[in-house]
Amino acid sequence: MTTANNILQPVTSRGWRRGLGNLLDHELHLWWGWRRWLVQLLIWILLINGAVAFIGIGFMVTRDAMDPAEAQQMTPDRIYLILLQVFIQVGILCTAVGAAISAQGTIIQEKQMGTAAWILSKPVSRPAFIVAKVLPQVLGLLVLGMLVPTIVFYVEISLLAGTAPAPVDLLAAMGIWSLVILFYLMLTIMLGTFLNSRGAVLGIALGFLFLGMFVPNALPQLAAIFPWKLDGVALVLALGPQAPQALPPIAIVPAIAALLWIVIFIVLAIWRFGREEF
Questions:
Q1: Does 8 map to a domain?
Q2: Does any domain span residue 3?
Q3: What is the dihedral of CA 21, 181, 264, 19, to 10 degrees?
Q4: DSSP code of 162?
């Protein structure tokens, strides 16, 4: 049921979408109806854009103290490359960690508090429950954790390096970045449908993330099927024509694999939650 002009009206959605509208309105209000979005936005800007500003201003302050040969190497092009690399790597790492932290209790909390059982006793489908939990988090992370910091970065790098990436190239990099966010978000959501401990869910998700710093060096084949090296792909895309070398065709394989994993995680989450006994 939904309320409009103080009159109860029947919800006509059927199938897996049953109850989705009401649940989605509630979850979106939790994200955007309070100060939560502003707090998160300030955190992302502080972490991501703050790192870029710290490095960029540091170059400007210490340039006079450098050796002449070292100072000569710090050309605007060099500073531009370093700042872009810092932004891509810090941004992807921070939002991946943020996705795992944000989603760790999304399903588990509802199961432990009994609200999932109460909600599902109403005319609500289980897939709609999962979708309503996922979409607001996707929107929040992509807008607050990626889009706004990217806009701020565009201004930052223009001021600090005197130039900025082409918007098309930056959008391509953001496409790869969004795959990493969605991968860790859906991995964490899926784990929450199988496990009942927030610590276990967060530990597995973050453990998998940080494994990407070591495993690809020992087993480079795994880097082709997991998103551990997509920050490098995003950097080359952001550089565009200024990249030292073009991306080889095989570089797109981890992006395709990440997209497939996201679909698998969604399917597994819906399947497992559908078998949950309440």
A1: no
A2: no
A3: -10
A4: S
